[in-house]
Amino acid sequence: MVKALIIDDSPFARRVIRHHLTNFGCKVMGEAENAAQALEQFHEFKPDLVTLDVMMPEVGGYDSLRLFHEMRTASPELAVVVVSAVPFGKIRDSFLTEGALAYVVKPFNRFSFEPVRQKLVRVFHRNVA
Fold it and tell me: What is the per-residue pLDDT across 37-73, written as a single tens digit (0 to 9) for each?
């Protein structure tokens, strides 16, 4: 089973992401609304997959890119799906170049998570539907 952590300051976005991850067969271990909570839960739950919102309030000197780097350094095999309301190619390319598995743009539609599901199947094989 793929253990997941959802990091997003929007309760609505967390619900939508949880719905999709659960349907894919992932077990959502926790949800964080800022980088400080995320880092604590990341170390506690040791997830296989993290969804990371780009535009979160900075807390404790952590923005999403710094959090991304710290999690990937601690767990190089970690799959990270970046979620953002910012469709700018430069930001997307930066995260993808740094090793993010996928980049999903808000607002979500019914097709938003299909490419993510396909990538998760490739990475986690039979553990994802």
Answer: 999 999 999 999 999 999 887 777 778 888 999 999 9
Nearest by Cα to 7 from 48, 70, 44, 55: 55
Domain assignments of the chain as residue spans, ordered by start: 3-127
Say what the pTM is. Answer: 0.93
Q: How many CB atoms lie within 10 A of CB 70?
A: 15
Q: SS3 of 40, please?
A: helix
CATH class of 3-127: alpha beta
User: What number of other Cβ atoms are within 10 A of residue 114's Cβ?
Assistant: 10
Cβ(95)–Cβ(82) below 8 Å: yes
